[in-house]
Amino acid sequence: MPFNRPTLQTLIDRALADMNSRLPEGDSRLAASVLNVLAYVNGGAASGLYGYLDWLSAQLMIDTCEQEYLDRWAGIWGVTRTAAAPATGNVTLTGSAGATVPAGSLLQRADGQQFRTSADVTLSAGTGTAAVTSIASGAAANTAAGVVLVLVSPVVGVNSSASVATGGLSGAADAEADDALRSRLLARIQTPPHGGSSNDYLSWSLEVAGVTRAWVYPQELGAGTVTVRFVRDNDTSLIPDAGEVATVQAYLDARRPVTAQVTVAAPIADTLNFQIQAVSPNTAAVQAAIQAELADLLLREATPGGTLYLSHIRAAISAAAGEANHVLVSPSADVVSATGHMPVMGAITWL
């Protein structure tokens, strides 16, 4: 039987009734009486204690506890919150041939985000490429190619402005959110390690900073092989680059059974475009709601080598707030992805 926390007024009424029963010559219901004041004070104190017990009861269960207690529960089960990671990549510097940018030089983005060069770079033919790492960790450090960075301290013979090289600055990730950690912890409890099962590879992959979804394909490349594919939903690019794939590969190699041959690969993105006509009502708000529902559907159901059902696409459109009717022109059949391929959100054409 569930316990219902008494309200403040209920506790006050109980105190009033208790005092009246024990002191028949006094009436605690009189507003100006000492007994009335004591009843309100007692009720307030008891309500505070009930509140604390109510909060504490939530901390005793993994599915309801707050951050501090969630981290403690996770530590007991050997699950560690994934730390924030910095962005890395290359920037292109220009200036006089032979000029040198020393290691440790700071470059700053327009919003104040700073990056430090990893090694000395000497310009050749007026240009040079410097490897940089963001000072601050977190997804906000990811920077697209072509973005301008400025040297914080001038360097003789080097132009103050630099640009992010092809590939951008990537790999940065925020510290793991409570819901993601809670999900991994519950999975650890409900599906204990089995020395290299599919769930083990999935759990190991999700322990790498920035990895938000992963899929495991046993024996895809033959007997004794395991193929793992993953994406980074919070990165500048959903599909991981070669460096991010190498990071997950190294992490799994350190944990896999010695007899398993593990291959980590990035999914191949297949842009999925939509054609929708006769949307009713055909307003900007309804269109935006439909786009959000389709993006959420892909987040939930798009998998490498999987099938995205046409009926689910139609249901997602119908679930959009305000939508009354529509005709889905394209796709016109289930979206079946080839091995290693997965659909990603494309454009919507409104007919």
UniProtKB/TrEMBL annotation:
Annotated source species: Noviherbaspirillum humi
Domain of life from the UniProt record: Bacteria
InterPro entries xref list: Barrel_Baseplate_J-like, Baseplate_J-like_C, Baseplate_J_M, Phage_Baseplate_Assmbl_Protein
Domain Baseplate J-like central: 193-266
Pfam family, one: Baseplate_J
Residues in Baseplate protein J-like barrel domain copies: 91-168
Transmembrane segments: none
Protein name from the UniProt record: Uncharacterized phage protein gp47/JayE
Phylogenetic placement of the source organism: Bacteria, Pseudomonadati, Pseudomonadota, Betaproteobacteria, Burkholderiales
Record domain Baseplate J-like C-terminal: where: 280-350
Family to which the UniProt record says this protein belongs: Belongs to the Mu gp47/PBSX XkdT family.
Classification via PANTHER family: PHAGE-LIKE ELEMENT PBSX PROTEIN XKDT (PTHR37829), PROTEIN JAYE-RELATED (PTHR37829:SF3)
